[in-house]
Design goal:
The chain has 138 residues and is α+β, with helices and mostly antiparallel strands. It has 4 helices and 7 strands.
Length: 138
């Protein structure tokens, strides 16, 4: 399954990097590089870009599927990540949001990408939202 997913993602990743973050037919994207939960190997996932202050949100909608996306488990296991937004690449720490904080963030995500609201209606699970907190260089 992941091999098919990589075959789908690789052209998107290549176009993103070749065109300063733009991919024809897609909305604004970010790329997350996350270590695999089982393998420790880096995996790159294109996600919708949801700016949130000086950081981004990662929304685990998976189109409203019953299960979380594969990257969710990798992010929980390895929250130290790299984010590419087409203009810059930076390290970040992913933090799973809950309660009121998650609700505010999800509302912002829906404002950026309204389909998230429809995806939430399609599934019993609460769609996870991570804050990708930019790490400051010391």
């Amino acid at each position: 399954m992941s091999r098919d997913w990589n075959e789908f993602n690789n052209p998107v990743i290549e176009e993103f990097r070749a065109n300063g973050g733009k991919v024809k037919g897609w909305g604004p994207l970010i790329l997350l590089t996350i270590k695999g939960a089982k393998t420790g190997q880096p995996h790159i996932y294109p996600l919708m870009a949801v700016p949130y202050g000086n950081s981004y949100l990662a929304v685990g909608s998976k189109g409203g599927a019953e299960k979380n996306p594969v990257w969710y488990h990798n992010l929980v296991a390895n929250p130290e990540i790299t984010v590419e937004d087409g203009k810059e690449t930076f390290t970040a720490t992913a933090r799973l949001l809950s309660g009121e904080e998650r609700e505010r963030a999800f509302t912002k995500a829906v404002a950026v990408y309204p389909n998230y609201a429809e995806y939430q209606k399609k599934t019993e699970r609460i769609i996870p939202v991570f804050l990708l907190e930019r790490q400051t260089n010391s």
